[in-house]
Amino acid sequence: MLRLGLAAVFAGAGLAKLAGDAAMVEMFADIGAGQWLRYAVGSCELLAAGGLVLPRLAGPAACGLVGLMIGATLTNLFVLEVSAAVTLVLLAASAVVAWARWDDVRALSPVRGRRPAASASAVESPWS
């Protein structure tokens, strides 16, 4: 239920950013990085919302949202100088989903199941 709620919140936020909602345009103008950032953040939010709906991608999507919400929290506190309460709640909720779906995150890792290489002395030579 939490991941579907997060998906709805981030889909709405992403669509508002991509559609050029006046409040979003103004907020990103205040940030001062340019409107390209609004498009980038909106796209990330929309992609993550889609990932949250698909159980296998929910963990990786939530991990991405954790990073996005860390950035949003820091931006709210140090650039916009506004309350970070909403971003902190979304960060915590995203972290809960990421933790609950951690096996899905690990399953996508290219290094899963690899064992560390044995030291040269532990490997028997075929010539001995």
Short description:
This protein has helices at residues 2-19, 22-31, 35-53, 55-78, 85-100, 102-107.
Write out key terms for the chains shown.
6 helices; 128 residues; mainly alpha
Strand elements, count: 0
Mean pLDDT: 90
SSE-based structural type:
mainly alpha
Helix-strand topology string: HHHHHH
What does this protein structure show overall?
By secondary structure, the chain is an all-alpha fold. The protein is 73% helix and 0% strand. The protein has helices at 2-19, 22-31, 35-53, 55-78, 85-100, 102-107. The longest helix is centred in the middle third of the chain and has 24 residues, at 55-78. The protein is globular and about 40 Å long. It starts with a helix and ends in a 21-residue tail after the last helix.
Structural topology:
Layout: H1 2-19, H2 22-31, H3 35-53, H4 55-78, H5 85-100, H6 102-107
Helix pairs in contact: 1-3, 3-4, 4-5
